[in-house]
Specification:
The chain is of the alpha/beta class. 34% of the residues lie in helices and 23% in strands. The chain has two domains: 3-60, Orthogonal Bundle (DNA polymerase, domain 1); 64-362, Alpha-Beta Barrel (TIM Barrel). It contains eleven helices and 17 strands. The protein has a ten-stranded mixed sheet, covered by helices on one side. Strands 14-13-16 form a three-stranded antiparallel sheet, with no helix packed on it. A two-stranded parallel ribbon has the order 1-2. Strand 13 (273-275) and strand 14 form a beta hairpin. The protein binds S-adenosyl-L-homocysteine. S-adenosyl-L-homocysteine (SAH) is lined by residues 113, 115, 117-118, 170, 174, 203-205, 226, 268, 270, 308, 310-311, 313, 353-354.
C-alpha cells in the first residue's frame, strides 16, 4: 500500500525521505506542499522530475483523492466526491460567498442516524473519519481556491484573500458520534489554518452527551441543531434519535451551550411536504400550527431559525413545498419575534444535499 505522506509527522516524514537516500531538506519542501493541499507530486515544482515520478509510485499526498468534481452553474459552489484509502467515499462542498469561503465537511462515511428525509443515511454508517481525513477536506478546498499560488500571511484567512475562512461540519455523518476526532480536527483548523472559532459551525441532530462535551471543550464555535419538528411526536416520526433524546432535553443542552459561549444558536428546519394519494402535496411539518409551536419553543432565546427548502431525494417520499407556504411559515415566526431566514439553495443543480452524490455513485 502506498504511504500517505500527510499522515506522517515531521520526524516520520524526514525518515521517509532519508530512507530514499534523499537530503533532509526535501522533507521540508514536501511538507509545505502538503500543507497547501497538493493533490499529487507532479505539482511540486521545486522537486526534480525523477523524484516526483518516484514519489508518485510509492506514495500519496493526502488521505483523500478526488473522484469527481462538480461545479454549480453560477460557479459559486464546488462539490467534491472524495475517496478514502479503504475505498469509502465522502463528500465535501466549497461555497464561495460574500462573507468568505466556506467548506462543508463530512465527519463520517455514511451515517447511522436514519433521518427519514436524508440521503446520507440510506446506506448506513461505514465508519468515523479520522482527524486527517477531515482536515484533508479543507485542504482540497484550499487547493481549489489557491492552487500552487503562494499564500500571503494573513490572519483569519479572508474571502478577498482567497483562503478557506469558514467551516461547517454539516456534511455526511453525525459529528457528535465522532466528537473526539471532530474536536481534534477543529483545533488543528484553528491553529494551522487560522480559522477563528466564530467562523466554525457544528451541526447535530441532537446527541445530548455530545453537546455537553462541546460545552466542556469550551471553544466559542457556533452550534446548529437539526430540529425539523416542534413536537416530540412529529420529530420521532422523522428522526429516530428523538426516541433517545427528547426535544426539550436537546434544546436545553443547546441553549446552555450558546448562552455559555455567548453565541446565537442556529436551528435548522427543513420544510417538508408529503404527497397524498391523489398526488397532491400536503404540508408535513410546515403548517401554521407547527410554526406557532416552533415559535413557542424558541421564544426568549438567542436563536436564528434557518428554514431549509428540502432538496429532493428520489428514495424518500417527501416533497418540497411551494414558495408561498415557505413564506407563510416564516411570517408566523417573524410575527412571534423569532429571527429567521430562508436558506439559499446552493448547488441544488449538482446534488449538494447531504449524501446525494455519494449515493448516486454507489449505485452505479
Ligand atoms: N448529522 C448532522 C449534520 C449533517 S446533516 C445533523 O443532523 O445536523 C446537515 C443538515 O442538512 C441537517 O440539518 C440535515 O437535516 C439537512 N438535510 C439532510 N437531508 C436534506 C435534504 N434532502 N434537503 C435539505 N436538507 C437536508
Amino acid at each position: 500500500m502506498k504511504t500517505i505522506l500527510f499522515n506522517l509527522n515531521d520526524s516520520e516524514l524526514e525518515k521517509f525521505v532519508t530512507d530514499m537516500s534523499l537530503p533532509r531538506f526535501r522533507s521540508k519542501q514536501i511538507r509545505e506542499w502538503l500543507n497547501r493541499g497538493a493533490p499529487n507530486f507532479n505539482v511540486m515544482k521545486n522537486l526534480p522530475e525523477d523524484l516526483r515520478n518516484k514519489l508518485n509510485e510509492c506514495a500519496e499526498t493526502l488521505p483523500v483523492k478526488i473522484v469527481k468534481k462538480l461545479e454549480s452553474s453560477d460557479n459559486q459552489t464546488t462539490k467534491f466526491l472524495l475517496e478514502l484509502i479503504d475505498g469509502e467515499q465522502i463528500e465535501c462542498v466549497l461555497m464561495r460567498t460574500t462573507y468568505g469561503n466556506s467548506v462543508c465537511v463530512s465527519s463520517q462515511a455514511g451515517c447511522a442516524m436514519g433521518c427519514k428525509f436524508c440521503a446520507s443515511t440510506l446506506l448506513g454508517l461505514k465508519r468515523n473519519l479520522t482527524v486527517n481525513e477531515m482536515f484533508a477536506q479543507i485542504l482540497v478546498a484550499q487547493w481549489e481556491l489557491r492552487g500552487d499560488k503562494l499564500k500571503d500571511i494573513h490572519p483569519n484567512g479572508d474571502a478577498n484573500n482567497g483562503d478557506v475562512s469558514h467551516i461547517v461540519v454539516m456534511g455526511t455523518g453525525e459529528p457528535l458520534q465522532n466528537t473526539e476526532n471532530v474536536i481534534g480536527f477543529l483545533e488543528r483548523a484553528n491553529s494551522e489554518m487560522n480559522i477563528s472559532w466564530r467562523r466554525i459551525t457544528v451541526s447535530t441532530c441532537g446527541i445530548v452527551p455530545g453537546i455537553k462535551e462541546l460545552n466542556k471543550w469550551g471553544r466559542p464555535i457556533n452550534l446548529a441543531i437539526s430540529l425539523h419538528a416542534p413536537t416530540d411526536e412529529l420529530r420521532s416520526q422523522i428522526m429516530p434519535i428523538n426516541n433517545k433524546y427528547k426535544l426539550q432535553e436537546v434544546l436545553d443542552a443547546a441553549f446552555t451551550f450558546s448562552d455559555t459561549h455567548n453565541r446565537q444558536l442556529m436551528i435548522e428546519y427543513i420544510l417538508l411536504g408529503k404527497k397524498d394519494k391523489n398526488g397532491d402535496i400536503e404540508l408535513y411539518n410546515a403548517s401554521n400550527e407547527y410554526a406557532e409551536k416552533l415559535s413557542d419553543l424558541l421564544y426568549g432565546h438567542n436563536v436564528m431559525v434557518n428554514l431549509i427548502p428540502w432538496n429532493t431525494v428520489d428514495e424518500r417520499d417527501f416533497a418540497s413545498i411551494s414558495g408561498n407556504s415557505v413564506h407563510r411559515f416564516q411570517d408566523i415566526l417573524i410575527k412571534k419575534g423569532i429571527h429567521t431566514r430562508i436558506r439559499r439553495e446552493r448547488g441544488a443543480d449538482i446534488g449538494s444535499a447531504c449524501g446525494q452524490l455519494r449515493l448516486k455513485n454507489a449505485k452505479k
